[in-house]
Design a protein that fits this description.
Radius of gyration: 19 Å
Strand content: 35-45%
Mean pLDDT: 94
Shape: globular
Number of helices: 3
Distance between the termini: 21 Å
Largest sheet: 7 strands, antiparallel
Helix content: under 10%
Low-confidence stretches: none
């Protein structure tokens, strides 16, 4: 049966490419992004992460630096229909003249009246969340208390969580995800700026799964330091829009795992969790056909790379399949465990009556 849904994914998430021009450069998305990720792909450069709660300041997924103001480096604003860049400072890292950039944008929503309950101990000071989009952007102050409960606003338990201490340099984005372990997933942690696999850190997520109202935090300064300002991005699966999970690699191009998402993915991020490996980012815009062998790294400044044997991937109307046959750090090493986060280009069938097309 077709996966009929009432939403259009491009109203909530969009992959968009642009060429820097070191001048006024307005990018139209059709919605106001609450979270914007920009990566130059024709040259080496950092990954820039912007959100609605930090105006022109960005963090990076590939280092542990404190937020930096990009208003003098080519970033102007998040707007009602997209985002605006400029030539200030020569365009800096997000709009310098000539290079090609990839942008991934997520729409937010409610900015007041977040739901709490009797267990909530931390209410974010600023936020934007959307149950329809399955995304929550939270700014909060920590309390260094194991078992602290942070309200997230989604109404369902998030399955992929990112937190960064903005106050202290040297603190990277910490990642907790439901699929990282069969029995105790929230006992483990990944670091977005690192190649390393999962690490047992009870002081990150307190070995406690999030629920429909709250995220549970440990007492680490990286995710919950007293007096620290922290950012948290939460993602919950939404039928026809987003999916997150885990798979085991086969090491075979002809017998690869098929990951059913219920939509044609626009963006896929994959991380080997039981050993060293990059955070690989694929999208449908930089590669116009299967096999996709163009990938970026969330944890590195590297330009787009090409390697079909080690990093090949196929995108279908209802999911994706890693096709690489070699490479210990690729997305299909035999017996290795991988986590992924995917967002849609098209659902299988939605309210406009159009079915997703294959690649």
């Amino acid at each position: 049966m077709a996966n009929y849904i009432s939403i259009q994914p491009n109203e909530f998430f969009k992959t968009q490419l642009y060429t820097g021009n070191a001048a006024a450069n307005a990018q139209t998305l059709g919605f106001e992004p609450a979270f914007l990720w920009i990566k130059k792909y024709s040259n080496s450069a950092s990954n820039y992460l912007f959100d609605s709660e930090n105006t022109t300041y960005s963090t990076s997924s590939d280092d542990s630096a404190a937020p930096s103001d990009q208003s003098g480096q080519g970033f102007t604003s998040l707007d009602s229909t997209g985002f605006t860049l400029s030539g200030t400072g020569g365009g800096g890292g997000v709009n310098d003249s000539g290079p090609n950039f990839a942008s991934w944008s997520w729409r937010g929503g409610t900015t007041s009246g977040i739901t709490t309950n009797g267990s909530t101990t931390i209410t974010p000071s600023a936020y934007s969340f959307s149950a329809a989009a399955g995304i929550s952007i939270l700014k909060f102050s920590g309390n260094s208390t194991s078992g602290a409960k942070l309200a997230h606003g989604l109404g369902v338990a998030p399955q992929f969580i990112m937190i960064k201490n903005l106050t202290d340099a040297g603190e990277s984005w910490n990642i907790g995800t439901e699929g990282i372990d069969d029995t105790s997933p929230w006992e483990y942690n990944l670091v977005l700026s690192e190649d390393e696999g999962r690490v047992q850190y009870v002081n990150r997520w307190n070995d406690t799964a999030p629920d429909a109202t709250n995220i549970t935090l440990g007492n680490s300064s990286a995710v919950n330091g007293t007096g620290k300002t922290l950012m948290c991005y939460c993602f919950a699966p939404v039928r026809g829009l987003s999916h997150m999970g885990r798979y085991t690699g086969s090491g075979s191009a002809t017998d690869s795992p098929f990951l059913y998402t219920g939509f044609k993915p626009s963006f896929i991020m994959i991380k080997r969790n039981n050993g060293v490996g990059p955070w690989m980012i694929y999208d449908i815009k930089r590669s116009g056909y299967n096999i996709i062998n163009k990938y970026l790294q969330a944890n590195a400044v590297s330009a787009e790379d090409y390697n079909e044997a080690n990093f090949g991937l196929e995108i279908y109307s209802n999911g994706f399949c890693p096709r690489s046959t070699s490479g210990a750090t690729g997305p299909n090493q035999s017996g290795d465990a991988y986590n992924y986060l995917a967002f849609a280009s098209e659902p299988l069938v939605s309210s406009n009556g159009n079915a997703a097309t294959a690649r």
